[in-house]
Amino acid sequence: MAGQSRSSNTLVVPQASAALEQLKYEAAQELGIQIPADGYYGNFATRDAGSLGGYITRKLVQIAEQQLSGSQFR
């Protein structure tokens, strides 16, 4: 099951999958959270998952705001 998503959400731009995966790992590193190497999130703490999801959402909103304002990202 490693590397497969059970989510029913579909990406509007399928090529964005790799960028979102990279963002997940960068966010986890910044927060000091270990992503399970085997892809099994059953033992992943709910608190860590919530922190990671919230951080990713904030980053995506920040990126969108910067793009809408016309400024460059990073």
TrEMBL record:
Recorded GO MF terms: double-stranded DNA binding
Q: Which is a GO BP term held by this UniProt record?
A: DNA topological change
Pfam families recorded:
SASP (PF00269)
Q: Say which domain of life the source belongs to.
A: Bacteria
The entry's function note states: SASP are bound to spore DNA. They are double-stranded DNA-binding proteins that cause DNA to change to an a-like conformation. They protect the DNA backbone from chemical and enzymatic cleavage and are thus involved in dormant spore's high resistance to UV light.
Query: What name does the UniProt record give this protein?
Result: Small, acid-soluble spore protein, alpha/beta type
Q: Which organism is it from?
A: Paenibacillus phyllosphaerae
